[in-house]
Structure formats: structure tokens, C-alpha cells
Specification:
Radius of gyration: 20 Å
Number of helices: 10
Structural class: alpha+beta
Number of strands: 2
Strand content: 5-15%
Order of helices and strands: EHHHHHEHHHHH
Strand order of the largest sheet: 1-2
Number of domains: 2
Distance between the termini: 6 Å
Shape: elongated
């Protein structure tokens, strides 16, 4: 920037900051054995698979997860299948084009395990896996951003619910499958294309929401600090 104020783009709407919460709902599917688990995976609604990969980010215990999705955690803790748990834990949902692709990857890896071993792992009756889906509740914060230069301070003060809504849940709402921040910057033309690319390159899956907020904030601060000296 040349030290002058940004010129407001009349075609760009203000960025509306929202918060969110997830309400867990039962699906009616449960599993006690690995085979039952595979069969349920084939039938459960895609929003349940989404929940067990992403919904747990809003749970307090996610700050230091032992495994990166609920499926892997159950297979390790309740079926005592460490090798399979580790194979499922390294699945990064951002590498797949949609939930159905993730479903197929999960099923394929479980089928490989079942094929290689005659013994079918089973949990205790009180440790069955219950498939959950979630309903997102969107909350209006009443806060708006007029210009991209406001992003660093705004993001640093956002709740983890806002980070989840704008940087994770946005990927299933926006046409391009991107976060809300980079989508908003499209309206400013090529001016912020480099920033857009940097934001879209951030992988949100292997961090807690607090860590993700810090990563995005630092990225934005560096960008606007360097930009102000050009």
C-alpha cells in the first residue's frame, strides 16, 4: 500500500461476522464390531461423516487430540486396533473432493483390514460407536468488516465458533469450496489475489481452532505489514 486509505469497492458487500454452535443429533446407526462399523459407514448420511471429522473441533477436548477423527479414536480405544486407527487418523478430509470420497476411503481401508485378518474386532457392549450428525446453529454477532485491512484485528478476536464457521464450515457452503475470507476477497479483484492464495493454502485439519486462529491471524498480520511497505 502507498499509505493512503483503501478505496472502497462499491461492488463488495461488507463481511458479516457470524458465530455458530453445533447441536448433535442421533442417526440411529451404531456398531459394536468392525464389520458392523463398515456396514454403518456405507449407509449413514454424509453429514454424519462430516460431523465425526469436523464437528469435534468445537468440543473442548479437541485441543490436543490423540487421533484426528472420531472413527480412528474409537477403533483404537474400543477395538484396540492401533494400526488401523493410525491409517484412518492420517486421512485429511481437505484432500478429498467431497464427503462421498472420504466415505469410500474409510470403507476401503477397513475392508483391507477385514480381508487381512480372520478375527473381527469387537468392542464391549457399553463401548459401541454411535453415529452422530449435527445441526449447525448460526449466530449473528452484529459485526461487519468494510475493508480487508480490518481482517487481522477481527480474526484475532473471533471466537472459535466464528473461526469454525468462516474457515471450516464455509468449505461446504461456498461454490469453490473455500473459506469465507478468501471468497470475500474475490470481490476486490486482483488486489488481494496473493493473500487469497495464502489463505486457501492453510490446512485447517491438523490444528485446534485456537491454533488455526493464531495461524490465520499471523498470516494476515504479515501480509498487511509487508503490503504497507510497498
Amino acid at each position: 500500500m502507498d499509505g493512503q486509505s483503501e478505496i472502497k469497492n462499491p461492488l463488495t458487500q461488507p463481511f458479516h461476522i457470524r458465530d455458530c454452535a453445533l447441536i448433535p443429533l442421533a442417526t440411529g446407526y451404531k456398531a459394536q464390531t468392525l464389520r458392523e462399523f463398515k456396514e454403518a459407514l456405507l449407509r449413514v448420511d454424509s453429514c454424519s461423516i462430516y460431523h465425526h471429522f469436523w464437528g469435534r473441533f468445537l468440543e473442548p477436548q479437541f485441543d490436543e487430540p490423540e487421533y484426528n477423527n472420531d472413527f480412528a479414536a474409537w477403533i483404537y480405544h474400543c477395538l484396540n486396533e492401533r494400526a488401523l486407527a493410525e491409517r484412518l487418523s492420517v486421512i485429511d478430509p481437505t484432500d478429498y473432493r467431497d464427503i462421498e470420497s472420504i466415505r469410500q476411503e474409510l470403507v476401503d481401508r477397513i475392508e483391507d483390514q477385514l480381508y487381512e485378518n480372520e478375527f473381527v474386532p469387537s468392542s464391549r457392549a457399553d463401548q459401541q460407536f454411535y453415529f452422530i450428525r449435527s445441526q449447525i446453529v448460526v449466530l449473528d454477532t452484529g459485526h461487519y468488516l468494510e475493508e480487508p485491512s480490518e481482517l487481522p484485528d477481527a480474526v484475532s478476536e473471533m471466537s472459535i465458533g466464528s473461526i469454525f464457521y468462516h474457515f471450516i464450515d464455509a468449505r461446504r457452503r461456498t461454490e469453490g469450496g473455500n473459506d469465507d475470507f478468501s471468497t470475500w476477497l474475490i470481490g476486490w479483484g486482483d488486489r488481494y489475489e496473493d493473500l487469497r492464495q495464502k489463505l486457501m493454502a492453510v490446512d485447517p485439519f491438523f490444528s485446534s481452532l485456537k491454533e488455526l486462529r493464531t495461524t490465520i491471524t499471523n498470516l494476515l498480520v504479515r501480509y498487511f505489514r509487508e503490503d504497507s511497505h510497498e
